[in-house]
Amino acid sequence: MVVLNKIYTKTGDAGETALGNGARVAKHSLRVTAYGTVDEVNSCVGMARLHAEGEMDAQLAMIQNDLFDLGADLCRPDMEKDGEAEYAPLRMVPAQVDRLEGEIDGMNEALEPLRSFILPGGSALAAHLHLCRTVARRAERLSMELATMESVNESAVKYLNRLSDWFFVASRIANDDGRADVLWVPGANR
């Protein structure tokens, strides 16, 4: 259980922070940047939820919880030492990726195939979901870069990859099942 009875600790005043295993690293380290960007995605999802209702809102709530799981996963290096930990570190699992894939497939059934790239926009919800998509892609790039240097859970990276796809398809659903998508017109302003 998490207990936060004092918000500021002053332990980060010199530019370092603690990872999930207690190791201290620079706040600008790639691992901290990766899980910080996941937190940014979560904040964007919170903004999108201001415009969501029903099933879409429920799915976004699940994604927000998953993103906290993902942050917990990324802030805990040394996956090979998970068995030695005092408590089992929280790791993303394939079932979370599978759930996103199933939701993407379900939403995609209502959509006509795209014949053009679409511009971020349309409804307020769609615009927010596009922002979620682009920030999720950045989190994925950072996590992939981190994976070239340190161990990163494969399911965490897969989740981020599927998540940006989820946001794209969901943005089309939010745009009247794609009928209100804003289409790109190549060279329209020449």
**Total number of beta strands:** 4
CATH superfamily membership, which one? Cobalamin adenosyltransferase-like
Gyration radius, in Å? 18 Å
- CATH class designation: Mainly Alpha
- Main pleated sheet: 2 strands, antiparallel
How far do the termini sit from each other?
A: 58 Å
Derived from helix and strand composition plus strand pairing, the structural class reads mainly alpha
CATH level-two architecture: Up-down Bundle
Order of helices and strands: EEHHHEHHE
| % residues in beta strands | 5-15%
Strand order of the largest sheet: 1-2
Quickly count the helices.
Answer: 5
Q: Number of domains in the coordinates?
A: 1
* Parts with pLDDT < 50 across at least 5 consecutive residues: none
In CATH terms, what is the fold-level topology?
Hypothetical Protein Ta1238, Chain: A
Helical amount? 40-55%
Mean pLDDT: 92
Shape: elongated
Characterise this structure.
This protein is mainly alpha-helical. It has a single domain (28-78, 89-183), classed as Cobalamin adenosyltransferase-like (Hypothetical Protein Ta1238, Chain: A, Up-down Bundle). The protein contains 5 helices and 4 strands. It has helices at 30-49, 54-74, 94-108, 124-147, 154-174; strands at 16-18, 24-26, 118-119, 182-183. A hairpin with a 5-residue loop joins β1 and β2. It is elongated and about 50 Å long. The protein starts with 15 loop residues before the first strand and ends in a 7-residue tail after the last strand. 32% of the residues are buried.
